[in-house]
From TrEMBL:
It is found in: Cell outer membrane. Residues 584-717 form the TonB-dependent receptor plug domain. InterPro entries: Carb-bd-like_fold (IPR013784), Plug_dom (IPR012910), Plug_dom_sf (IPR037066), TonB-dep_rcpt-like (IPR039426). It is a multi-pass membrane protein. Belongs to the TonB-dependent receptor family. The keyword Membrane applies. This is TonB-dependent receptor plug domain-containing protein. PROSITE patterns: TONB_DEPENDENT_REC_3. GO terms for molecular function: carbohydrate binding. It comes from uncultured Gemmatimonadota bacterium. It comes from the Bacteria. GO terms for cellular component: cell outer membrane. Keywords: Cell outer membrane, Membrane, Transmembrane, Transmembrane beta strand, Transport.
Amino acid sequence: ADGATVERTLRASAEHVQLEALVATAERRRCTVRPTEGAETATLWDEARKALASTGQSGRQYPLRYEIRRTTREVDADTRVVRNEQTRMQSGYRVNPFVSAPAEQLAARGYVETRGDTLVFYGPDAAVLLSDVFLDTHCFRVQPPSREHEGMVGLAFEAVAGRKLPEVQGVLWMDRRTAELRVLEYRYTNLPSERVAELAEGRVEFRRLPDGAWIIPRWRIRMPTPREALPATGARVPGIERGLVQTAYTMVEEIGEVMEIRTAEGAVVPTVAFATLSGVVYDSTRARPLAGARVQLAGTQHAAVADAEGRFRIAQLPEGAYSVVFTHPRLDSLAFVPTPVRVALVPPQELRQELAVPGMGTILTASCLPAPAGSAPLAGTVTSTTGGAPLPGVAVRASWQRPGETGDSTRLLAATDRDGVYRFCSLPAGVAVRVEARLADAHTGAELRLRGGAAEQRDFALAAAPPAEARLRAAVPSRVTGRLVDATTSRPIGGAVLRFGPGLPQVTTDRRGTFTLAAVPPGTYGVEFRHDRYGTGTSRITVREGVPAEFELRVPRRAVMLDPIIVTASRVQPDHYARARRRASSVISREEIDRRQGAARHLGDIVRMIPGLAVREIPYPGNPYSLKEVCIEARGVNSSVPGSGGRALDAPLPKSTLEASMAESGCVGATLILDDVPIRPAGEFLRDLSLFDIESIEYVRPVDAASMYGDMGTYGVIRVYTRGSGSRP
């Protein structure tokens, strides 16, 4: 756009050689802490300035298409463990993916602003650091490296004396051998709270590519936000004086990572390294690997499914502290939730972490408090020797006598619950303990010697039938909810039909991929699912009595041969080009998409070749270098379009659902229909849709689309079919 070109030209004018003179002046006037370091400071700044200036020039000299992962996550302010995380992908040609507010605004308002009850943090980008106003308000000095920055030399900067607004101070770290800029680390000063100043920080990484271009492959800002003010005692005291209040904080991290870079010719440029988590999940209750366990970093979308050997591997992970959790139907049947395991991931390392379902003794005593020193918990089940049914109400007695004690032995008594489970939370370790189970005339027992702190299991079988009320008691059904998602992308799968066996109704997943069964008897069920794009498959779930169950089924996408009745009812149409000849439409085949994919940034670049279509790229407000959405419009659509109601394009739009969304986005574009499903609004979807997944694109012009789709076709229709969806040229 013209506006973007003008702004880029203005930014280029800031890269003037006068910056060196400004540094020399700043040395004499501002950096007076160690005046003897002036020459070295000037040399370091000159090297840093080259890289900073190049990050803006590289996007002009070397057209690069960035694939960026933007992550927003909430982090525990004390432990720094990730609580939850939202990730989105962005792609497109950019001068610089990391852009801050203008330097003049930051100098006038500060780097932290208060908007209502929200703190807004700004980080300095290359343009800010190179600006005259930054050099006028900050001084530089040489920073010796710490152990963390071994092999580097730092150029520290801080605000000059007298600055009262929220400011930044930090260090530009450079390689001591090559003098190349590696990373910028900064913190915030002049903040009203010491705790906020302690928590708030930022980091920007720099990298020089083999062809000489400089990029910012990764950046991060940590922003604490106050949650609630409480008295230091933790109790609410009316009229408490200011200054006696302690504030809890929520830590929010904004992270940007360049996942991939492509040149205009389609060549891939190496980017940053990421962390990897791998390991094995083991089931101690069965002494074998737990195949099919789903391992996940809690609160995030990063997950993997263990293979037949229990092995898992999660790659491309950002730096951070996480809680690792895993789920499996086996855990549901045991009614046990493993304790999350905390890990710290640091790129480019691969961390190996073993996960396990503990032994039955640990599971059955999970409700016990930690056993005192010199003691151990014991649990088990009591079943009938005829049929193996659990025996509720059985008296279980533990008795022992410590060495040197005389007289009667010490005894504890427990009773089995309705599942036949008994438990002792604290029995003496290292001495002989006699455990006996008795029901009426039937009894059995064993002598045990427990190990301190280790939970143990001992089961008993009695030659007794369950009480009549237990045999006649009807099983309590459970509410079952579940979700069907793509195994690769974790996107929900709507419209899938699931069958759970005889006696249970067939259900269909909604657009969120969810399903619900209100009353399911306890037991293990085979689940059969069917979907027109994912084919058919089976899984198994276990439902416990009276316990609500939640399941997630992850389905891989694969091509399938559907039976004749499904083919007859599917959306497969006659030849694409035959349809195009019969109506006013244009078709782009898979082969043409493959030919153009290397230079195309998004679907809009593909459809530019269709006569009558105009493609606009709409940036985020105030940031012309970022792509918010893609708008595909029909040229010359006017009152002659059937279904338009005689309205010109520049007339006010009626607030129908479709047109209201168009007005909100600023795009009066063609309707996008993906695999026969309308996408509204489509701007961001068009930006992010992977070209690799597209099988064909058909543009139906307004003259034909309005008669086929009504108001939805007023501005034309773009029909996109993905691979394996059944429609292709």
